[in-house]
Amino acid sequence: MPRSRSTDAVQLVADARAGDRAATARLLSLVEQGGDAAAAVDAVVFPESGSATTVGLTGSPGAGKSTLVSALVGALRAADRRVAVLAIDPSSPFSGGAILGDRVRMGDHALDNGVFIRSMATRGHLGGLAVATPQAARVLDAVGYDPVLIETVGVGQVEVEVAGEADVTVVVVNPGWGDSVQANKAGLMEIADVFAINKADRAGVGETRRDLEQMLELSTPEGEAPGWHPPIVATVATTGEGVEELWAAVERALAHLAVTGALERRRHRRLGAELQRVVAARLAERIDALSAGSAYDEARAAVRRLAPWVAADRLVDSG
Amino acid sequence: MPRSRSTDAVQLVADARAGDRAATARLLSLVEQGGDAAAAVDAVVFPESGSATTVGLTGSPGAGKSTLVSALVGALRAADRRVAVLAIDPSSPFSGGAILGDRVRMGDHALDNGVFIRSMATRGHLGGLAVATPQAARVLDAVGYDPVLIETVGVGQVEVEVAGEADVTVVVVNPGWGDSVQANKAGLMEIADVFAINKADRAGVGETRRDLEQMLELSTPEGEAPGWHPPIVATVATTGEGVEELWAAVERALAHLAVTGALERRRHRRLGAELQRVVAARLAERIDALSAGSAYDEARAAVRRLAPWVAADRLVDSG
């Protein structure tokens, strides 16, 4: 049991709550690191979390998600909410260290202490973003940000999975999107609680709305949010048009989910899925450690004398 | 430590050595079963193995491998060798139980007590054929069969991998093969110690031989068997033509590998690779067991109170 680490986490959480942004950044770095570092943080953070709302935003690259997130942050700040943004980029070789990039990207909010922005990337740790993201959201929740916006850069499987693991998920499309995201349309329809048709100053908004409505009718009726019909909100992120309506739709979705008990069920299901991912990540770490350590070299040398199964079991039991 | 199981394995090995074919079949079933059953067998069998030669045979479906293997068995029986055949079929839903199929397939040898034939399939156990096959070969070695022929049905990645994990590997092609197995040619060239051009009564043998020679010149020069130039033997399995020459080529390859120390290096490398696969299989079993057991249900229930990382670690440590 890494006592010093857990004491560190307690101190870091206290500092982060008192407004020390470096402490928040450090907690997120520990989460990204995975393994015992992440476990020590979660042990401290989990009991302090659960009050913030998480909102996933996903959609094709170029749909204007970053601009829309920036506009949402502006609207939320105007309502005096402390907002955090996790920008998830599975393909990026950069990790949370990309502060400069985040500052440039979210220039309007860079000097605002009520906003915390973090880019997450895998840094190659086992389990990856699907393991780190919910834990990072809990950190931001525990240190006082609410809501936590989780923005993903694409519509690949990982992005859709990560974005769908939020309390409410917003799928961002553009007029005429129909042809551009054939690949993962079904996955997007499944996770959407709210649709934003962004860049709605372009032609084809009505057609896109009818297209979405038709797909909603065809898709599986109830699912996890019985009685909820995903609203479709037209936005122009660059001018702020529709952004308050979008947030109002998110809050309506949240209220519906809370009243019907669907929010609690969704959160419970998410924790179960997270448990499985963390178990797999922990055992994967063990495989990795076993293949790298000196015990492995010993087993490797012993395998001329020992049955591979006997050597493997000694190794696994020692790990 | 499953003492009773290991006692069982000791008894089964003794019975199998005394000529009890059902005991051999039972040992192979335990190996296919994986997990603790396989581990108990290996602990008994491994120290008794190492004297038999394993020969892998692979090539495209339809190349006549089964007929060639049957002909090789005939030639080896004529020289009074006790021969075992492992027929590896990753795609087959059947397991070792397919004795009738084996009898039909190897009809000439079905009643010969000096021949043991077994079809292996995955039966879905974790780690699969790549884990089970070398262990099954050790069982056959330990109970007195030598050589053990390992025949795979195709040229997919698993088949090439399994066939290549033998002391000597024979790649079976046909005249005019050039166009039919483009996909995995490089993989086949890499593992081949000996080539058989089977169905050599058809046209195109010379062309195929030149084709193979050219590819051998182009492929990486030394590799695991320095100084060995894979011979190319023309066979007609249905008539037995070339079959003794093929076995002579296998024995020359073996002798070369033994004299140069390459055989020992190859076996040591194989054991190392097997160790890694068994470690992965054992940990995969653990993930599986953890996700199915009551401890998992408890952790799943506790995850409302416990951080997923804390619940996961309790579970992993309990497993």
Describe the protein's architecture and organization:
In chain A, strand 6 (194-197), helix 9 and strand 7 (232-234) form a beta-alpha-beta unit. Chain A has 13 helices and 7 strands. Chain A has a 7-stranded parallel β-sheet with strand order 3-2-4-1-5-6-7, sandwiched between helices. By secondary structure, chain A is an alpha/beta fold. The interface between A and B is large, with 39 and 39 residues.
Task: Please outline the helices and strands.
Two copies of one chain form a homodimer.
Chain A: H1 3-17, H2 21-33, H3 35-45, E1 54-59, H4 65-78, E2 83-88, H5 99-105, E3 115-120, H6 128-142, E4 148-152, H7 157-164, E5 168-173, H8 185-191, E6 194-197, H9 205-218, E7 232-234, H10 243-259, H11 262-292, H12 294-302, H13 308-318
Helix pairs in contact in A: 1-2, 1-3, 2-3, 2-6, 3-6, 4-10, 12-13
Alpha-beta content class of chain A: alpha/beta
Rg of chain A, nearest Å: 22 Å
Sequence of strands across the biggest β-sheet of chain A: 3-2-4-1-5-6-7
Biggest chain contact:
A-B, 39 and 39 residues
Count of separate DSSP helical elements of chain A: 13
Quaternary organisation: homodimer
Total beta strands of chain A: 7
Chain-averaged pLDDT of chain A: 83
Distance between the termini of chain A: 15 Å
Low-confidence stretches of chain A: 93-104
Sheet with the most strands of chain A?
A: 7 strands, parallel
Strand content of chain A is 5-15%
The helix/strand order of chain A is HHHEHEHEHEHEHEHEHHHH
What is the global morphology of chain A?
A: globular
Helical proportion of chain A? 40-55%
